[in-house]
Amino acid sequence: MPALDVRPFRRADRDQLTDLVNTHVAAVVPGVSVSVNTVLSDLERQPEEFITDPWVSERVTLVAEQRGSVVAGAHLLRYRPGAEVGESYRDSGEINWFVCHPPASFRPDALDAAELLMRACLARLARWNVRRVHADGALPAPVVYGLPRNWPHIRAVYEAAGFRHVGDTEVILLARVADLPRSEPGGGVTFRRTVGECGTRFTACGDGRALGFIEIDTALARPERHIRADGLADIGNLHIDPAARDTGLERRLLAHAADWLRLCGVDRLAAYLGEEETERYGLLTGAGFDELTRTDRGWELRPA
């Protein structure tokens, strides 16, 4: 087989690297893909990560190439050691994402490429001499973060390199807006729509106080980045006053949000839950959501 070469990303690699990224995105969330411009922008800065991105001091993208083809890629971040950086990120290095072709009969060298690229990643992280090394799979696309269960080949590469899952697991759900319940008036509850922290907020009010709210983000795709995610939104926040639980209020809030999404032309809504949130899982699946995948967050290098 032709020799593999691991080297820094070049602009001429942009189309092939984007194809690799989109192959991994497509395995997680339907109907979403990213443009070349999106990938290039992500390599330079991540404005949606407004807390952690300013902490980054160095960014490096590496690719594995064989016979002119980019067969694997990884994006590395180095975080500053200053006191202004959060403790868990301070003076750390991260494999922000790692993509590669899975082993296949027509691509028997895929595993070699992934292993060679990972060795190069670890060598770069070692040269940075950071106190902690962690990893993620945060591709520049909505709903893709952590290490989704749909990428067993990436998990195998991480684990072989000594990374261990030390964080939590989240469940990602997706619903067709057409399948969500419709709002019904009455019940002594009124609803108001305002600007929220994570999107448009719908607040349920009764007895002169707020009983709960849901926030819906319909701006998952930044227009200048040309992400193909039209018709996709997500639940940014959902909170119910403990005294108003078991009253069906969550379902009514979801129905009001769904009415708004229909007016927006949004046809799919994503939701995120901790694996332990079984009660809310039942509520959402009963309202029309299906489990899309589970993703494991928080990977740390812990060699044997």
Please tally the helical runs, counting DSSP H or I stretches of 4 or more residues: 6
> Nearest-angstrom radius of gyration?
21 Å
> What number of domains?
2
How can the largest sheet be summarized?
8 strands, mixed
Keywords: Acyltransferase, Transferase
InterPro entries: Acyl_CoA_acyltransferase, Bact_Acetyltransf, GNAT_dom
Organism: Streptomyces thermospinosisporus
Domain N-acetyltransferase: 152-304
Can you tag this structure with a few keywords?
304 residues, single chain, Aminopeptidase, elongated
How does this model look, in words?
- This protein is an alpha+beta fold and 304 residues long.
- It has two domains: 4-161, 3-Layer(aba) Sandwich (Aminopeptidase), CATH 3.40.630.30; 174-295, Aminopeptidase (3-Layer(aba) Sandwich).
- The protein has helices spanning 14-26, 36-44, 110-128, 152-161, 249-264, 278-286; strands at residues 4-8, 56-66, 69-79, 92-100, 132-135, 147-148, 163-165, 169-176, 190-196, 199-206, 209-217, 232-240, 268-274, 289-296, 299-301.
- It has an eight-stranded mixed beta sheet. A seven-stranded mixed beta sheet has the order 1-2-3-4-5-15-7.
- Strand 2 and strand 3 (69-79) form a beta hairpin.
- The model has no long low-confidence stretch (mean pLDDT 91).
- Keywords: Acyltransferase, Transferase.
